[in-house]
């Protein structure tokens, strides 16, 4: 029921970061439909592009930090301005985060880690795994959505082979027609405590 205003500055400077991709909308719909309790929780969005997912999490009450490569930050800031009045108390913060370089300057215990379509480039997988391991604590819940492109060596390999080496990974939602999948990611001991996760069940699974 929320209307978001999102600017998209297409061109060579931003490249893929300029667009709202299907996986971001897929994750946004999930967040809205599951009525997850973000109130006061620390949230970080990785590889945010336009920032649409983090903006929605902030509108749902989260204490949100939106991150991406430095070139994308002005677009994210513009989209925050389009969706939050200047006096809003829950305006997201915007910070550069280059995986494999910057994650050490961030807290290591975010309650919620969000990412959409951030696993399309296999050479970046080791750095992304390192960033996730640095940013996630024992009670963190990751929600990662992706277009399952690239065959067995792309997103499928990341979610089915690489990520499970360090985290518990569970498929929460799939759209076969659009080849979209959404995964919940937690420390190996079990689900985080976001909303229904506190009872040991996964919102929207099954």
Automatic annotation (TrEMBL):
Q: Could you cite one Gene Ontology molecular function of this protein?
A: methyltransferase activity
Q: Which organism is it from?
A: Hypotaenidia okinawae
Q: Which Gene3D superfamilies is this protein grouped with?
A: Vaccinia Virus protein VP39
Q: Which Pfam families match?
A: Methyltransf_16
Q: What is this protein called?
A: Methyltransferase like 21A
Give me the ranges of the annotated region Disordered: 186-206
The protein's UniProt keywords, in alphabetical order, are: Methyltransferase, S-adenosyl-L-methionine, Transferase
Q: Which stretches are tagged as biased composition: Gly residues?
A: 192-206
Q: GO CC terms for this protein?
A: cytosol; protein-containing complex
PANTHER family documented for this protein: EEF1A LYSINE METHYLTRANSFERASE 3, HEPATOCELLULAR CARCINOMA-ASSOCIATED ANTIGEN
Presence of keyword Metal-binding: no
Q: What GO biological process terms does the UniProt entry carry, in alphabetical order?
A: methylation
């Amino acid at each position: 029921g929320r209307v978001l205003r999102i600017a998209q500055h297409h061109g060579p400077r931003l490249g893929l970061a300029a667009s709202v991709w299907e996986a971001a909308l897929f994750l946004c719909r999930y967040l809205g439909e599951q009525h997850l309790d973000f109130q006061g929780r620390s949230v970080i969005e990785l590889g945010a592009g336009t920032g649409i997912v983090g903006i929605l999490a902030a509108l749902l009450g989260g204490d949100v930090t939106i991150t991406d490569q430095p070139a994308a930050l002005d677009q994210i800031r513009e989209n925050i301005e389009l969706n939050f009045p200047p006096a809003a108390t829950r305006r997201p913060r915007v910070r550069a985060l280059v995986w494999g370089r910057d994650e050490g300057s961030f807290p290591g215990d975010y309650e919620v880690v969000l990412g959409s379509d951030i696993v399309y480039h296999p050479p970046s997988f080791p750095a992304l795994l390192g960033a996730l391991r640095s940013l996630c604590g024992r009670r963190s819940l990751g929600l990662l959505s992706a277009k399952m492109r690239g065959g067995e060596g792309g997103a499928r390999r990341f979610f089915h082979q690489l990520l499970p080496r360090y985290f518990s990974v569970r498929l929460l939602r799939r759209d076969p027609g659009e080849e979209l999948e959404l995964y919940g990611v937690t420390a190996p001991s079990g689900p985080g405590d976001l909303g229904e996760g506190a009872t040991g069940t996964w919102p929207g699974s099954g």
